[in-house]
């Protein structure tokens, strides 16, 4: 009993404290009661300072934790040789600007230092002398800065032009070719870089030069014979061949085929006739069969065999066409990927258009018209496809403009032909262009349509002279 009494006495203050907590307790009363240890301390802004607990990393991080624990990033290395011409020029310009600004800042700081160094009356003479020396140095530095700023302005105004090393000293390496990426050349020796700005991936700008070099080598192999009418054929003539191809021009228009299909058809016909004799009754069969093969090679959706049988009014059956297809492919050993005139013509037209600020539509249509006229002419087999394409562009430019010389260093560079080498082909083309008594009209009627700007009606008023 006595032990229970002692326990109650010891617990009495706690009970009193709990009762007291139900009422409002000030800090003075809490101090009097000895309860200051059970109240959390407050900071100066009357905010309760809670003890540290385990929370998210974002709550426990200091304000500058991100700046102290930033992850290191690797620098991206760029190859300066693969940078475009504009980026290279702008890089040079920016470096010169930074260097110029630094030099200007140094000049200003020297002036300020000169004004504050000499402050006592006993050093006035030294101040005047130092000022004169510094003025001379500043004038020399400002001249250098002015020369650099002048160069910067010239680079900014013409960022895409390689200049002559004689004019700008060590700015460009010696022997650098003059390439003007402008529509108008600065001099007659300038060569336009036609592949520098082209963004169309189908033009293969990075590989275009190599591709056309390979085409130039390939056109020398597998050429049709230039005199097979005398050595191989005995039943057909060159007039029959011309009539057949002229009819195929109409068939190509009927089925809306690409120009590549028509040119490849004529090439396959000549290659087969150079190796195998054929009767005149089967010449038309050979024509539609070669067009069927070319359509399968060039067209997205080739006409059916029945369509070619229908175009001949049922003269040949489906079995005859398939048998002839087998014979043609066997004779040619399936070598049907050959360079034709149109493959070179597209490239040369693109080169010719680079000399103008705005492309001339008539130039493209007229060059294609002149090149297509040669398909029906047996005599043009002696000319290389690239030579015919270059001559068509030459005559087209002369027909449209008889004041300016149609050939320039850019065309000579990309075609690899001089104007004197085109003389025989250009004169033969002009004779065909001026021939109003031609019996084969399919190509002429085709290019008299509005969609081709009626270029078949255009003729040159003067004979071609600048061919020497």
From TrEMBL:
The keyword Cell inner membrane does not apply. Residues 44-70 are annotated as: Disordered. GO terms for molecular function: cyclin-dependent protein serine/threonine kinase regulator activity. Residues 246-330, 343-431 form the Cyclin-like domain. Keywords: Cell cycle, Cell division, Cyclin. One of its GO terms (biological process) is mitotic cell cycle phase transition. It comes from the Eukaryota. It holds the Pfam family Cyclin_N. Residues 339-461 form the Cyclin C-terminal domain. The keyword Coiled coil does not apply. Belongs to the cyclin family. Cyclin AB subfamily. This is Cyclin N-terminal domain-containing protein. The lineage of its organism: Eukaryota, Viridiplantae, Streptophyta, Embryophyta, Tracheophyta.
